[in-house]
Amino acid sequence: MPKKERKRLQVVISDEQDALLTRTAYELSSPERLISKSEVVRLAIEKIARELGEGENLEQYRAILDHEAVADEA
């Protein structure tokens, strides 16, 4: 069976965001299966897209992004 082709995306994240990814991957992992940070990112993308499709949390996500944009400018 051929391997599923995936697109690669490179992003720059802060040390704090990397720590959040690491902690989330650790919390989602079990003794039977370790979860990677990439899997956490894919899960987050799906969750956000699903919520936006259902009209949920739009303003909350915009507020988070606006806050990050202000922090990036500082």
Features:
74 residues, mainly alpha, 3 helices, globular
Overview of the molecule:
By secondary structure, the chain is mainly alpha-helical. The chain has a domain at 38-74. Helices cover 64% and strands 0% of the residues. The chain is built from three helices and no strands. It has helices at 15-28, 37-53, 58-73. α1 (15-28) crosses α2 (37-53). The longest helix is centred in the middle third of the chain and has 17 residues, at 37-53. The model has no long low-confidence stretch (mean pLDDT 89). It comes from Deinococcus radiotolerans. This is Transcriptional regulator.
The value of Rg in angstroms is 15 Å
Q: Structural class, from helix and strand content?
A: mainly alpha
**Proportion of residues in β-strands:** under 5%
Query: What's the quaternary structure here?
Result: single chain
Order of helices and strands: HHH
Helical content class: 55-70%
Shape: globular
Number of strands: 0
Residue stretches low in confidence (pLDDT < 50, at least 5 long) are none
Q: Number of helical segments?
A: 3
Overall mean pLDDT:
89
In this structure, how is the largest beta sheet organized? none
Question: How widely separated are the two ends?
Answer: 50 Å
Protein name: Transcriptional regulator
